Known about the structure:
This protein folds into two domains: 3-89; 106-344, Bira Bifunctional Protein, Domain 2 (BirA Bifunctional Protein, domain 2). It has helices spanning 3-17, 21-32, 37-43, 50-89, 102-105, 110-124, 138-141, 178-187, 227-242, 295-300, 317-325, 338-344, and strands spanning 128-129, 135-136, 172-173, 192-201, 212-222, 249-256, 259-272, 275-278, 283-293, 309-316. Helix content is 40%, strand content 20%. By secondary structure, the chain is an alpha+beta fold. The termini are far apart. The radius of gyration is 39 Å and the shape is elongated. Strands 1, 4, 5, 6, 7, 8, 9 and 10 form an eight-stranded mixed β-sheet that branches. A two-stranded antiparallel ribbon has the order 2-3.
Amino acid sequence: MSDTAKLESELLGAVLQAKDEAALEAVRVSALGKSGSVSALLKTLGAMSPDERKTKGAAINKLKDAVTEAINAQREKLKDAALDARLASESIDVTLPVRETQGETGRVHPISQVIDELTAIFADMGFAVAEGPDIETDDYNFTKLNFPEGHPARDMHDTFYFPPDASGKRKLLRTHTSPVQVRTMLAKQPPIRVICPGRTYRSDSDQTHTPMFHQVEGLVIDKSSHLGHLKWILEEFCKAFFEVNQVKMRFRPSFFPFTEPSLEVDIQCKRSKNEVRFGEGDDWMEILGCGMVHPNVLRNCGLDPDSVQGFAWGLGIDRIAMLKYGMPDLRPFFEADVRWLQHYGFRPLDFPTLAGGLSA
Length: 360
């Protein structure tokens, strides 16, 4: 076997063994590149005699053409194989359900959604959102809100206390968001119009109570606010939140240390087939507590009750979420069950607006 025939056999074998385009390119460079074996043979033609060039030149050119043709054929073969593999890996079964995009697979927790709904409603009425720390002092959580030391009203709150500090004082996890109202009155001068949503903590756990839950409270302080204004705000809120055209409410006397007079509010509803409908029926459901801010609270916050007055209210966010969206048990709110969240959660782009409908 001549040298050219032997080299051709070796090169064609290397071409066929190339499993991808990178390996095939390496064979091409080793054969036809500037320093390749075939190119080296072509460079020897100039030093040959005319008779040698006729015989050996033809054989070398034939070798070059054969290797080039084999490389091109193998390249096409590899491209076809790569395309077949890609088509197999990217095939789509059109009988399968349409997959949601990544932006649609997540869900907004009902509590977060309801807080956004509350914010949208009260922002339309001119309320700002105020926030405060979860860990509070006894002074802000109780004393400034007209809970004297040792007063029986403190027993209404099953409080989580921290160990005493160096001075003997004990901080606590706030039992309501009312300390945010205190901080707001201490930091701002009337007129004040804020809502205070946030987490609160009490040592209680059953179907309708959890150790950590969510409240929203509202506060209005100015020179001429009265119960009529409070009633209108609560009626408009209930109509907007439950998305009904009208509601009937009744106000019953109650007791809260931080308001005087204090009232509990019932809303008209209809109970049937494990469902509650608002704005109709002949039944009543308690939804919140409210009242005029106690003069002692105003004094404790540096305000003169002879010059300004105000009202406040508070309700459980978790409870109104259960009422509006038909959730029978409060505990799954905090169990992080993805199946529950997929069922009751909201799509990330379902922003609640009054114009578009809160739960549209």
